[in-house]
Amino acid sequence: MSTTADDILQEIMRCTGVDETPETLSNTNKDIQQILNFMNQAGAEILSRAEWSKLLKEQDIAANATEHTLPSDFHRLAEQGGLIDKKNRVLRRAKSFALFSMVKNNKSAVNYFFIDGSKIMFSSKVGFLGASVKYVSENWCQDHDGAGKTKISLPNDHVLLPAYAIVVGAISRWRRNIGLENSDYNAEFESVLDREFKSDRGV
Predict the structure, then answer these.
(1) Lowest mean pLDDT among 28-32, 48-52, 106-110
(2) CA torsion sign, 176 to 21 to 37 to 71?
(3) What is the pLDDT of residue 13?
(4) What's the whole-number mean pLDDT along residues 166-175?
(5) Dist. CA 155–CA 152, nearest whole Å
(6) Do 72 and 109 fall within a single domain?
(7) Same structural domain for residues 162 and 105?
(8) Which ranges of 95-135 would DSSP assign to H, the alpha helix?
(9) 89 and 129 assigned to the same domain
(10) How far apart are CA 15 and CA 50, in angstroms?
């Protein structure tokens, strides 16, 4: 299946029997705009449920930095090696500002970090070689020029997440919204997510 937003919409309409013309997101009909909302809800859930390779990014941190501004598309740290210095030492995350302050004031031999909004703070300088932050981008779709987006809004937007998972997730939401049984679609959604994630990881 193609990954344009309109292709995903048309597959959803084919499966649900929604009959509106033209079959495009540029149609402001209530039913189509409702499906668009379900597509975006499904995309947001898929983004949160796994670490997709197309959304993994890395950004350098300057040498001797004591803090760093996160990129504008930052969603969350990568599961493995989210913050690592150029000597391949993984920095430890402080789960609270109180813990971070205690570590910083006691000058721990281990460098800790704390994320405060859009900023990372370090308990000590990251070192003369600098460091890098590996993260998951919140931009799970793109416009036709390749600019990242957090929501589908236009017919020729492209998705970076598994398209069929978005289809199934949107259909499940559509069925629940109109009071139809959707347990089969919920089960299929979970199955598709598992299969697509394993494929993404090369399993």
Answers:
(1) 106-110
(2) positive
(3) 95
(4) 96
(5) 8
(6) yes
(7) no
(8) 97-105
(9) yes
(10) 26
